Amino acid sequence: MKVILSGGTGYIGKRLLPALLEAGHEVTCIVRDRRRFQSHSTTPGKLSVTEGDFLRPETLSLADADTDADIAFYLVHSMSSAIDSFEEMEVQSARNFVAAAKSWDIKQIIFLSGLQNSASGSPHLLSRLKVEQVLIQSGIPYTILRAGIIVGSGSASFEIIRDLTEKLPVMVTPRWLNTRCQPIAVRDVINSLISVMMHTPVFNRVLDIGGPDVLTYKQMLLQYAEARGLRRKIFVLPLMTPRLSSYWLYFITSTSYKLAVNLVNSMKVEVVCRENYTEILTGIKPLTYKESISLAFEKIARHHVVSSWKDALVSSSRRSSLKEYIAVPEFGCFHDVRQSEIKCSTGDIIANIWGVGGDNGWYYADFLWKIRGYIDKAAGGIGLRRGRTNSDEIYAGDALDFWRVLLADKSAGMLLLYAEMKLPGEAWLEYKLIENKGVVSLRQTATFRPRGLSGRLYWYAVWPLHQFIFKGMNRRMAAARLVP
């Protein structure tokens, strides 16, 4: 079948794409920025990529692609991008998608929504419901799958549970931890999405999918601790307000404040399947919550985390594209350039560059990098807690601590990062191997474009630290292999 996949660079989209290709389908991915798209397909003839932004309908022409498609997956989501305005964005995006889908002659729309509770709903869940209504009224056959907490390596829910349980032996928690939900393994979500493709009995139906366990969030934390061999105590207090709960999640976990607010608003609402269709659709018994945790850690141990919520641009900003930042500015900027002749093989230096950040740290004065991360978090930024999705690979679009990867080209020995920390300006960090008269050196360039007087004062204030940090980091990275 011919499939159009929107949201191909998102958490679910990155996992659905290889499954579609492996099943032999022809897939056209619509992405905002082609540079961020990474395909590991062994059947490139089955995959095409086109740029389009569902908030800008004029970009959705697929003249270069085969638009005689059977199915369109709609996997676009904006919950992380704002606290109070994502509902309008969601609805407008869905309307533009429907208009485009009609021109593509789509025979079925498949949408992954959220489990609903008729008694009450958070802004996030209500926005999902409004998107459903737009798709239902489109006149195109649809299948809507509603899922609750999705558990898998790199999912926002899994990473938050992991952060809380791994870091806090004793937790004093808000009362929403007693709210019930029905978690589902990401594997079962992908299988469910594939199983409904052109399956006429599920046309024009809204189906709930979930795992076999109905748990409170407290039980999820305790079962995670049990699966990891940890002893944890949790005390639930009725006094913590939604605002305090949001700050609690924000400072303890790697989530952004915007996402923390939206998650807390959603977690106050009980979301349990009315009727669970997971096994009916897939023919496979869904994984239990503990089995989902075990599978997630198998992926982590094998360095096979396919996607992470942190890599989505909306997890840290409202930007829909990073194209304009690829060309590093030269004028009106401050520059710190360091260059050291390499003391080992170029392969070792490439390994150093591609291993930077996350658990490996920044190779020099790591305690200062951590302090900068704490300051950023306290100022409302993202801090260093995002780490990196893969321990040994970096791709354009990946989150890397408080940076975003703009360009990662091993053949050219070049890595370009853009700062997503709180700054009175914009910053880039570039690593590049250069050769001159047979001598290979590692050049490290920090570029800062200040915003007004505050930006200039900031640069001069941190200049003494840069002399220490950047000099030491460049020399150490060029002298020996640092990543095992």
TrEMBL record:
Xref: Pfam families: DUF2867 (PF11066), NAD_binding_10 (PF13460)
Residue stretches making up the NAD(P)-binding domain: 7-155
Family matches, as InterPro entries: DUF2867 (IPR021295), NAD(P)-bd_dom (IPR016040), NAD(P)-bd_dom_sf (IPR036291), NAD(P)-dependent_oxidoreduct (IPR051783)
SUPFAM superfamilies linked: NAD(P)-binding Rossmann-fold domains
GO cellular component, one term: cytoplasm
Gene Ontology molecular functions: aldehyde dehydrogenase (NAD+) activity
Protein name per its UniProtKB record: NAD(P)-binding domain-containing protein
